[in-house]
Amino acid sequence: MTTDLEQVPFVATGFIDNPENRCPCVLVLDTSGSMQGRPIEELNEGLAQFKRELLTDEMAAKRVEVGIVGFGPVQILHSFTTPDAFVPPTLVASGDTPMGAAITQAISMVEQRKSECRQFGIAYYRPWIFLITDGAPTDAWQEAAASLRQGQKEKKFQFFAVGVQGANMDILKQIAGPERSPLMLKGLQFRELFSWLSNSLSAKSRSQVGNEEVAVENPASPTGWATV
Amino acid sequence: MAALSLKGSNGRVALGRELGRGGEGSVFEVAGHPDLVAKVYHSAPSSEKAEKLRVMTRLAKPNLLALTAWPVDVLQGHDGSVHGLLMPKVDGYKDIHALYGPKSRRTEFPEANWRHLIRAATNVARVFAVLHESDCIIGDVNHGGIRVRSDMTVKLIDCDSFQVRADGRTYFCEVGVENFTPPELQGRPFKGLMRTANHDNFGLAVLVFYLLMVGRHPFAGRYGGRGEMPIEKAITEHRYAYGRNARSLLMEPPPFTPAALAAGSDIADLWERAFSQQAPHSGSRPAAREWVARLQTLESSAARCAQHPGHYFVASVGSCPWCAIESSSGTLLFLAPMGTILPDSQFNLAVVWSRISQIPVPGAVPEIVLPTATPSPQARALQSARRGRKMWRIAVIVAGLIASGVVPDLTVLWLLVALGFWIAIGSWAEATDEIAVFRRKRQELGNALSQLETRLRSETGPEGFAHRLKQLETARAELVNLPAVRDRQMKALISERDRHARRRFLERYEIEKAKIPGIGPAKRAMLESYNIETAADIVQSAVLNVPGFGPALFRRLDDWKRSVEARFKFDPNSAVDPRDIHELERKLTQQRVQLERALLQGAQELQRVHQELKHRRDQLIRAAEPIAAAYAQADADFRHLED
Q1: CATH 1.10.10.10 is held by the domain A20-206+217-227
Q2: C or N: which end of chain B has fewer Cβ atoms within 10 Å?
């Protein structure tokens, strides 16, 4: 129970309005100069579709929370929100590729959101950190990679990396660590990628056990959007 | 899937529009059977599952059919393998989470107050009781499998996963959702697992909790121990966050939630029993019938709050728990009612419209005001220190230059120059560092503020309200215009007597009874399932749409239609067919009722939008005030330092 004198942080109202379990997912998106032109356009279109598809699943619309970190330069482009309040930003490509700092930012966003959830007694699923890049880091990434490995080992979050044409897959492999190999996007199939991501998050937020058929399809299958 | 040829026990089943798609299969309309839907699995189920579905169709009883989407027939492929099932259509219902979540309740069930939630909980318990008494276990209790209508009656869907028993054999439920799974089953595989009513009753207690406690889960609380405490772990460890022993289990209810006692001590006792450590072993969780009895008592004891007409609570708890949460948190749990919807005959446009026009139109998005600020003592101190250092730096350099002129010794000169540089660079670096702190602070606060501004604009713009108002204006105009529409359509009826009479005439000739070459009983049945029943229905596009019908068969049907039509003679002195007039009146009445309802509901909706918008603006502005003040300060400091 609450007394009149307890402080009411702004974040609380969102949790009272919608006390459902949260399923945070932060997109770490490469917006460096090399993404200019079609890649960034397709990525923007993919984001808009992501919102539309999440909204078609009523439960996912209450549980999934999307946040976006852009890099080149590193900035929080969207703080965590449920799909109804998610306004896909229009990404503009410029600058270099400070991937390490972006990953560190994403990890701290996830940890902060989890602590807000804990404070307000809101359950959450293990957050996802989803990196998309077409280049190689231009900053020191080793420390970020170490935090990723540590966090995954402690089951604090799950990390996924997707390389777009031109990405340095060797470094990406080192960043992703042994837990999960990075995937290579086929062409510019961002829409297929986000459709898959939306389905995966919907399935995850349903948390049904025992039904293998709802398990999400393998993105690296011949009809999928990626290659290993 | 739709291409698959499927038959039920009464012959071929023609699938219509796809209504939805899930992980396991898709649901379709069934041509010619508006009360049924077909579920077709993405891949053919196992023989065990197929056998289960057959058994279930045999078990279909009226009491089960009234409360669930129970399978009534299986769908087989040409080789006899089972691919799906037929079940009653559950129309006009919404997922139960749309009712218990405060945000979705405001839009999906705007009139629902706490008594509605109790009634829905009672009805859920009733369905559980009926199923358990029919020796049937739900197994996979979850928020998507129970659907509720605006009158708070509920229906269960996804029945093919139920655990059923027949002829001494048990067909298992092999799935479950963690948040509704009892502790004794958490983490265990469901395959081949015998589920009991006691397991279901855990899920029932959770559902009742969700409904009565405005969307909260009984095991989601604040955990005082180390590490994380996800719901499934809390369930396994019996850490009921609202329980009497919660504190000793390091659990605490989340802030801004009602206490379990808000639902009365009887209900709180039932939860204690359902979530206790003993419950898994003794099988002693409250059964569905017990919930029904206690919930009925609770509903009758709930009284309206004197402060808020949308709040109901049990007087025994003292003060209104909803008022306490709403006023301390600034959110809306329940909307104030707009008054009950009047029966059609009493509809009064003037009254309804005056009600709509009394709702204040929201103005432009409010601005976040920046208070004026003067540089802080810290910024002033830093600035004067910088000035001091600058003077000192110049002094050192000047001294060095003078010294170089006066003292010819080169060693001393170089020493002095080096000292000058050291001081200059050191103080420069120090000052930049300190300014950077101010700059960063200003930038961070600026970002936070602009994020709030964006939210204000995107979430509280006046457009949504204006759009709805516009819709209501359109509905009103249409309603006013209805008599004119009727007039016009009556005139059209008179001028189109010929066409209408012809159609009536053709409708009297049923394909079923005609002898048409090439159209045997199977073809007739096919046509019928596509609603092509009389000569009037023979239209090229419709016929070609029926599987197996090409231009040749259409020509035969069309020839027959022409031979029938040749016998029709129009009498120019005939009156308009009374059935046409009746049909016109029926349509107009329907239109009128729809418009009236749209206006009544729209008035309520508009009121809700108004309340929410106002609330949201207040919230955001309140949240912005401290940030705006901090930003103004940071800005003043930074500007001062830049000078």
Answers
A1: no
A2: C
